[in-house]
Amino acid sequence: MSITFSQGKLQADERKTILQAVQKQTKATALQAIRPVLSGFLEAEVTAKLGREKGAPRQISSTERPINWACACCGCADANQFTRDGHYRRSLETGWGHLEDLQVPMLECQQCQHDVICSFTILEKYQRFWLDLDQDVLFSSGLCQSLREISQRWSATLEGNVGLRTINERINQIEPLVAQAHHEPITDVPTVVQLDGIWLTIQSQSDKEKPDRRKRRRKKRTAKSEEHTEWERLLNRLWERGVRPEQGLEMVVRDGSGGLGEALALVYGSTVLEQRCLFHKLRNVAEKARSELKGEEKREERKQLLEQASAIYQAESAAQARERLVHWAQHWRERAPQAVATLERDFEQTLVYYSLPSVTREWIRTTSLLERTNRQLRRKFRQAVTFGSRKGAEVAIYLQVQRLHAYWTDESWWETSHALYFDLGNLNP
Known about the structure:
The chain is mainly α. Helices cover 49% and strands 11% of the residues.
């Protein structure tokens, strides 16, 4: 270890120089230690496939010993016909840094003297990056790190360029898991389902182009409304996956979107209760109150109106809530008629939660729990700004849902995100 320390306290550049030297030697030592570990596992797999230790003679037998490795020329898959044929050296990019001269075992087929294609468990042929990149990008993307941030970190670790495309491909490769989630049966059907919409931007290659402020050509962004056809597609998929009244579904909580209401009628009819979200209802009342009771001098009056409107839903029963609405409307109708009309409109649909006494009222009368989830999703959408494809958007949502589920179930996102790599391998062995 060639580091020289002075007699006094280390200062500024001297301390920096020593610490950098320690970091550099630590990294080099780690890479030196990793190389024989990987080579050892590769040799162990060869031993397991051949059924004999290194240096042991090949057994001539008429009984074949088939394995999943085969000769590149004759197609032989009999391990009894394979012998070790030295190594070849290759480099590998890992989370510890750039690994040189990794020894990879080679096999030769004794029937035709050609190379055997060895598909190692821990190392794929022609693979530039080890699996820790695949796992890390899922972990980092789930934490809302951008492609550029992940790329810069890996480029610094490997002291070379790791492109955005490389990162993006490794994130989008879990799309089969997303497709599986779309059709996987839901066996634990909840009593209440909350539904709400959230906006994101997906850029299509068919979108028209327009120049931005720097005169660069950019795709023009378009948006779809919350039409009932979009909601109907979602509800039909939930129905097919088992979210049905006979499986335990009793109520749907939603906002005032007309498209969602129409879709619910088409898919579920009158078989489930519909609860209008109190938060959205009271928010609409607040907007009307601000336009009718304007000015700082009426601020306290607006506050009273909203507090009294909110108190209506603290009633012990639906009948008591109706009585409170009558008194509240009589008190405020002259000063804020639009606010009163807004609360009275579809008022009965906001009282449906009283019909489910077995479920905590605070949980089922608003979509507040879902709004908290939406805030996490919007955090990712703001970071991404625009998704280049629907697949990319669905993968991003899937990772956020997986991360939130890990949080809700007190699991480690680090372990959960790393497990996704293996889940993908199990899906496509």
